Amino acid sequence: MFFEFLIVSLLLYYYFLMGCFITSFLEFKKPIGLFTMIVLNLFFGILLMMFVLDIQHNILTILCSLSTCSSFPIKMTFIILVAFSIIAIVVRAKQIRSRYHNYALNNLFRRDTLRYLLAFIFLFILLAINSINVSLYSKGPHTDTALFLDQARSLVSLGRIYSNVFHPTIPGYYSVNPPHIYVAFYYAQFILFLGPTYEAAKVANIFISLLTVLALCCLAALTINPKASILSLVLFFIAPRLWTFLGFPLNGSEIVAAFEIIALLILLEVLDFKTGKIRILINYFIIGLISYSVLRTRIDYFSLFIPLIIAWHFSFYFSNCKLTEGVKRFLIIFMTYVMYILFLRTSGFATSALIICMYGIVGVLLAIFYFKHLTVRVNSILSFTCLISTLGLINMHVNEAIALSAIESLMSNPLTMITFTKFYSISDFLNRLKIFSAHLIQAFPLTYWVLLIFSVLTIIKNKKYLNDAFKFAPFMLFISLYLVYICVSVIDFPQGFDKHRFFVLSYLLIIFMGSVFITRLIPEKSITFSIHFNLAKAFVKTRLNSKIMAFFLLGLVFMAPIIVYDIGLQLQMIEEPYKIAEQADVVKHLQKAYTWLRANSSQDDIILTRKPFEASWYVERKSIFMPTLPQDYELFKQKLRSYNISYLIVDKLIQYDFRHNEIIQKLYNGKHPDFLKPLLNYKYDSSNVWIYKVIFN
């Protein structure tokens, strides 16, 4: 694993170069530290690379839909971008130098700063080693990761995503606009250096996870002080469930989206939005680009989090307006984003797509010509986001079959398809809320919650901290809304690790707020703390019967059993990430079937299986899973013929899903019709695995 990290160091260097170029255009409202600047540079490099691949994918897909298919390998794109970055760095050398001119490296080695730096490096290295160790227990990709890797592999070779996974309603479907598409763009960059292997996904996941930790620490240092950033690292170690997020790429979309949002929070903290200068438009464009990247990574994070944070920022920080005016602006921006999300859900209709495109074009033009007006500046981010979305919408509508399928799915159940929610009874909702809330609370030791509550009460009592506490209200609002969202959404109850993978961003924000609040219990200066400690010590010696001594002993008696309980509980939980990595591994019973199909099938064959993502990744053939199958043999044969199915994999998974289908049950037991020929059969843990060849007369 260390060798793989060494290989991708060139990619890290490229990220930094491109980030330096972008930050040279930004306008900051306050100075930021060297570490924050480096983290932002790496983020901008990743973001720009994914955006370029997004544009390339859309353009090539449109060309392939309209005329002959062409390909432009990602290697050529990378070479062009490297050449462009070198030229851009030379052109912007003066501006880039000015960004780093104010950083006095000697200040890094002051006594206080050096102590924080050494503690931070030590904890971060331990976290990195632990993440790599957890990743070694994972031997194969999970379902979603297999899909991302399959898409990334085609992106590397073709320059566009031509997925081997067929859509169950569209013959010949390929992924023009799949959900979480930016994860495939991200994995493709590492596949370019490490090859099309699962190791590339693991290295990519560990890299983005550690970078997310760095971003979180930078945000804590920006808002409070270096103590909060050190504490946030410590809190990672007292929540072993988080180790699995860092070490095991179960589903990369959560951690990638979390990193994008935390970087967005940093930019909202440091970027200047108040001036009316036209060059400030680059700040709005960058925020719009990040919003679009979150949208392409996880739409639920985008639809819940981005509007709240941006509206809050505009309402209470952009102008010294009255509270009522701020609330009005909040509601206007929030409802505008709601309409944008609804139009995206109905973008299968050409009218909705046209409205989004026209809004983006008109909004950007207004921002350019009337940028000094606050209303235009407030809508600039949404306008840029709509404008960036244009190419993807054109891409979807060029493929008429996909647009028609989207319309049919939408009209079949408008409420579910637009909002991705459904109504539960009150008892069902409360039961789901209880399960997920309990899981969220139990993720951290009891000692942490006691200290957090005590620090919050201290802040409430001390009025000078109230403004800082109010600043983090949107984070708490997001956690609450997201918790409600997953409790009323159509997401089925996940099992095992899936149960808390929906809380990645929530975990990170709780760690951030916890480090911010608990740090308020620590005095600003260590000298003051030592003086107070010595005074307290002398006072206790002279008055052993004092109330202070009694309070101290009561506190110690109260906290001691909690700490002992937490230590015992954490020792039991310490093995959980490793068990998860082993249990949630690739479906082992199908490995022999995948090997056989790869050796004996042709490139044009299509496989019907319960695990199409894994089959496409391992066999490198087109795969499909259909949620319903007829129970009449003749209709069953026609269904296979309509999708041109060549092979069937019948195992315990498909047998369970179609437990009421007599044909599948007979196939699992080896009883087959004339148009299906058994080619391979074996047992794995007393369960059957069959491969049938479809024979059409």
Quickly list its features.
five-stranded mixed β-sheet; globular; 697 residues
Written overview of the protein:
The protein has 697 residues and is mainly alpha-helical. It is 70% helix and 4% strand. The protein has 34 helices and 5 strands. It has helices at residues 2-7, 9-23, 34-66, 74-91, 93-101, 111-135, 143-158, 181-194, 198-223, 226-237, 241-247, 252-270, 281-297, 299-317, 323-345, 350-369, 374-378, 380-398, 400-412, 414-419, 426-442, 446-461, 466-471, 473-488, 498-501, 504-519, 526-542, 547-573, 576-583, 591-600, 612-619, 633-642, 652-657, 662-668; strands at 606-608, 622-624, 647-650, 676-684, 687-694. The chain has a 5-stranded mixed sheet with strand order 2-1-3-5-4. Helix 31 (612-619) links the parallel strand 1 (606-608) and strand 2. Helix 11 (241-247) crosses helix 29 (576-583) and helix 13 crosses helix 18 (380-398). The model is unreliable at 171-177 (pLDDT under 50).
Kindly, what is the distance between the CA atoms of the first and last residues, rounded to a whole number of angstroms?
51 Å
Global morphology: globular
Radius of gyration: 27 Å
Average pLDDT value?
A: 82
Percentage of helical residues?
A: over 70%
- Going by helix content, strand content and strand pairing, the class is mainly alpha
What's the number of helices? 34
- Strands, count: 5
Strand order of the largest sheet: 2-1-3-5-4
- What is the percentage of strand-forming residues? under 5%
Based on the structure, what is the oligomeric state of the protein chains? single chain
| Unreliable spans | 171-177
What is the makeup of the main sheet? 5 strands, mixed
